[in-house]
Write a structure and sequence with these properties.
The chain has one domain (2-128). It contains four helices and four strands, in the order E-E-H-H-E-E-H-H. The protein has helices at residues 26-33, 40-51, 79-100, 106-128; strands spanning 2-8, 13-19, 58-63, 68-73.
């Protein structure tokens, strides 16, 4: 499991991106997902999917009471699939934050999208170093 943590300063939100691997254990997954207080039944479902070898998916969790968001990704079969899923989950972060902050402005949404794009790119580079 690889993790990448960062903060979205203007909104004060901590974000963790997690790339799972088929060798990940339930306890390690539970610890990682505890960051955003993900429910036990959802952690079990994700672990079950990892154990069965599911690929090409992701989940986005949020807990604005503690200003935390988390994206978790299953392994990818190819780079195209990675880009698609990253874009999908990144968009969930953008939409959830804009709604939570009551921001209805396309420029603000665009700035957030650009910021997140650089962070997802850094996360991708971490994956490629191995």
């Amino acid at each position: 499991m690889k993790t990448f943590k960062f903060k979205i300063p203007i909104y004060g939100i901590d974000v963790v991106l997690i790339q799972t691997e088929k060798e990940d254990t339930y306890p390690s997954l539970k610890r990682a997902l505890g960051f955003c207080k993900v429910q036990e039944n959802e952690i079990k479902d994700i672990y079950d999917e990892i154990s069965r070898g599911c690929t090409g998916g992701g989940y986005t969790y949020r807990n604005f009471d503690i200003r935390k968001m988390l994206c978790i990704f299953h392994p990818f079969e190819n780079e195209s699939q990675r880009e698609e899923v990253y874009a999908h989950e990144k968009r969930h972060i953008e939409d959830r934050i804009m709604k939570w902050a009551s921001v209805d402005d396309i420029e603000s949404a665009g700035l957030l999208a650009g910021f997140l794009g650089t962070k997802f790119y850094e996360f991708k580079k971490i994956q490629q170093k191995v």
